[in-house]
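REQUEST FORM: STRUCTURE PREDICTION
Request ID: SP-0412
Submitted by: Lab K.M.
Chain count: 1
Length (residues): 104
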Amino acid sequence: MRICNRFYPVVLACGVVFTPAAMAQMPMPQGQFVCQVVEPDGERRFIGVQADSLERARLVVTGEAGPAYAAKVPAGRVLEECIDPRSQRFSSKGAQAEYEDLEL
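STATUS: Completed
RESULT:
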């Protein structure tokens, strides 16, 4: 037990020094999408999503991308439309105008 106590600070220091390198995070997806949704209270809003594809962005916004996402999405949210704002526009002129008026 004494030996463990003597080396504990060294082990702790090594853990602090080497743990961040060993646990490096995966890079975030590079696609940035915008989805228009209707919340359960009837409010329309735009949600920015960073995802690998437009389809993945749709899954994230609706909570169908997995249990971690489902827990954060309010029940009853309805997806109107998702776009890649660099190359697409919302099909509704009103939604597009509202999106352009946002201060981003």
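NOTES: The CA atoms of residues 29 and 52 lie 5 Å apart.
Reviewed by: T.R.
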